[in-house]
Write a structure and sequence with these properties.
mainly alpha; single chain; two-stranded antiparallel sheet
Length: 122
């Protein structure tokens, strides 16, 4: 069995067709695009969260500084964790719509064509 099956003309079982797509340059580019967003954003969020935790543990005076009434810096930082989570989700949605979904849709359409062509049921 050869592993050089071209993605443009996959034949055989469904598993072989999926492996051919997985080996294709287009799918590799899709994974690279996804990783190009996910990894840096994950690192950025983790560092932001770590800053919050470290400041809470070691900069108690700063985090306890009251800004308005009983609202202090720690509370604002905690609420900003939620805000940053929603902003990242919103940004990912826009990023996926522009960069990831068109490629995934194209791959899915190609797989659908191949599946329908090789499906004996029609």
């Amino acid at each position: 069995m050869s592993t050089d099956t071209p993605a443009s003309a996959p034949t055989g079982s469904a598993a072989e067709r999926y492996l051919a797509v997985q080996r294709s340059d287009e799918f590799a580019g899709l994974r690279r695009t996804l990783r190009g967003f996910v990894f840096p954003m994950t690192v950025a969020f983790f560092l932001w969260y770590a800053l919050y935790v470290i400041l809470s543990a070691y900069a108690r005076d700063f985090m306890g500084t009251k800004l308005v009434g009983n609202i202090n810096v720690a509370l604002i930082f905690g609420l900003l964790q939620f805000v940053s989570t929603f902003l990242i989700a919103w940004y990912y949605s826009r990023y996926a719509d522009r960069k990831i979904d068109p490629i995934a849709d194209r791959i899915r359409a190609e797989m659908g064509e191949v599946t329908h062509e090789s499906d004996p049921r029609g």
